[in-house]
Amino acid sequence: MRRLMAVLGGLLLPVLLLTGCGSGESGLVPAPTGPVSTVAETNEFNPVDVMFLQMAVSHHKAGIEIVKLARDKSVRTDVKTLAAAIEVTQLSEVDSMLKWLRDWNQPESPGSDAQLHANHGGDHSTSPEAIAALVATGPGEFEKAFLNLLIAHQHNAVEIAKFEREGGVNPQSKALADRIFHSRTGQISQMLGYLD
Question: Looking at domain 44-110+120-195, what is its CATH homologous superfamily?
Answer without folding.
Answer: Ferritin, core subunit, four-helix bundle (1.20.1260.10)
